[in-house]
Amino acid sequence: MSTRESILAAVLKNQPPASPLPDLSFFKGNRQDLASTYQAVFTSIGGSVFVVDNLAAVNARLLENFDSTKRLVTTLPDLGEPFDLLSKTADPRTFNDVELAVLEAQLAVAENGAVWLPEQRMGQRIIPYICQHLAVVVRAETIVPTLHEAYAQIGVGDYGFGAFIGGPSKTADIEQALVMGAHGPITMSVFILDRNTD
């Protein structure tokens, strides 16, 4: 037996007894008015939130605020013109001129305004970070109250890469001057897709 094997055998032999995991149920948040809570928190961190009932409303709102002659990309085929559908096989360096990217989040967290974007929903890993402006569509029923509940949902998933993104990129490290878009999107908008909206 090698030294390595003997050390590992000794460690394995001297394991502490198993103990049950702690009860984390007290971390569960209030499930009432999740969309309103999310909207208030996300707005307070510099983002914009819109409650819509379909992707046509998303398209219309974005075209009111963004130049359709610039490069607009999405992972949502139903979003329609003038958005280009992202290619997962394209060279990531070709996305350096993306003005606006529109992605769909797996879920959103009301307590901190974050959205969860696994790699499969990004189109390419670089997209949410290289675009000038980021818009995210999240279904109202996928908003969870707390980050603990978000982790409970995503913990069993198979992700090569994923990120919680909360608000536009900003920093105030230098002389306490707030700079938007320092190392990512200048603006971030979240569209809460609520089929029950009148």
From TrEMBL:
Entries under Pfam families matching the protein: LUD_dom (PF02589)
InterPro entries in alphabetical order: FTHF_cligase-like_sf, LUD_dom, NagB/RpiA_transferase-like
LUD domain residues: 93-192
Cited PANTHER family: LACTATE UTILIZATION PROTEIN C (PTHR43682:SF1)
UniProt-recorded name of the protein: Lactate utilization protein B/C
Organism whose genome encodes this protein: Larkinella knui
Organism phylogeny: Bacteria, Pseudomonadati, Bacteroidota, Cytophagia, Cytophagales
